[in-house]
Amino acid sequence: MAVLASRATGGSYSVVGGKGGLIGSPTNAARKSENRQLLESMSQGIPPEAFDTKIDKMSVGPFTFYRGSAKFYYRDMQQQNVVVNSPFYSSEARTWLQADMHMANAGRFDASDGTVVFDVNDFDESFVGSYLYDVYRLAASVALVARDQGNALEAADDPTSKFVRKFANAYLDQIKALAGDKRKDSGGVNRNPLTQNNAGKNNPIAKLLGKDLKGLGANKKWLDPDGPNLLEVPDSLISVDADVKRAVAAAVEAYARTTDKWAKLGDKKGRDYFAVQDVKQRVDAGTGSLGTKRFYVRIAGSDDRLLDVKQQSLPAWYDYVSADEKAVAYGGLDGGKEREAARVVLAYKKMVAYGPDPHLGVLTMSGSGVDGIYSVRERSPWKDSLDLVSADDPNLHLEKKDMGTLAEQYGTLLASAHDRASDGSNGTPEDFSGLLWPLIKGGEDDFVDLVDGVGCAYARQAQVDLGLLK
């Protein structure tokens, strides 16, 4: 069990892993039963074969399990009051969160101004809330990546991690710098993400993704080079019947009129640009969202870009945050049927630098088995993510130096995104870093110890829960 001292009360509290703290035994019957019940609830609305695939993916290793178990995380944070009991918690220190913040939920793409960046992405779980949810979740993922069997940079049961500490220190350093910077977006401290050009040839992100930008085309395998169609790719992109294609095409036409892209082009050019050429269903994508209805749409206005149309539902945290937290979680969005997709779209706009994707929007479909509310974004031809664990690449082995640099970069990246997303709207403070830094100042070492302790404890919990799954 991880027990962390509380500066605020002088007492202590157990951290993560059900009501009894961190579970050390993989045969714990109560925890196993509780996990099974939660998994059953997660299977609702997902085709059985897709859910079986999700469980298979989660079973590969601790990090892949962690990627698919955001609900476990929020349940455990709530049961132990890990966030609200932190001496570094304040109900005012809130911002837009990525909310499933692990190391695989950042990647490369090109922003609306053409800048190729490496930044946070995938905002399906996003909400306005305490920064600690993102910090703790990313901290645990740093530990899990370092302890993957292919990397083997630390012992699996180590109660501390030098990589988590590097991450926490980098987050603090960036918050401190931003808090003291009065210019921010007008030439002060850089709070933009890494770009392809400034990463440096020895940077691990550049090394892992590849520095050569020529011939990139993340969507090429799905594009028919001889026509306007999408190619069917087994276990990736599959055909839909004519009724589904018509339903998607009709919904795209309505959604398109609400986008920044349409507003810029005008009606005539907008209709031509968004004219649907083909629709295919995306399958077996990701881990956490695997089984969610998702379509790729090829439109006339782009040769190498797709619309990614993804169904949205209640997020993983919904049942596990307090009434007070839930009151601000949606950033003031109304409670209409489109709220979940609107939440995702708004988080994209707030958290991503260099201008939001002009294709962002909300799409509503009904009939033909595709009923639901969907978020829409552009799928960039630059899209790529890091191979971090042996499940991604059996031959992968991250070097200690590279892992340390990555941990620091993720800390800077997350602090920058948190500060960038907080602008006085949607229930966020005008200056997140300026509000947070006084809360931490003077307790920097305690903060790093806390993030390290919670991150390592929850990494161990993911390892144990994987054992209970099998």
TrEMBL record:
InterPro entries for this protein: DUF2252
> Which residue stretches belong to region Disordered?
182-203
Polar residues biased stretches: 192-201
Tell me the superkingdom of the source.
Answer: Eukaryota
| Record PANTHER family | DUF2252 DOMAIN-CONTAINING PROTEIN
Give the protein name, as stated in the record.
DUF2252 domain-containing protein
Organism field: Edaphochlamys debaryana
- Top-down, what is the taxonomic lineage of the species of origin? Eukaryota, Viridiplantae, Chlorophyta, core chlorophytes, Chlorophyceae
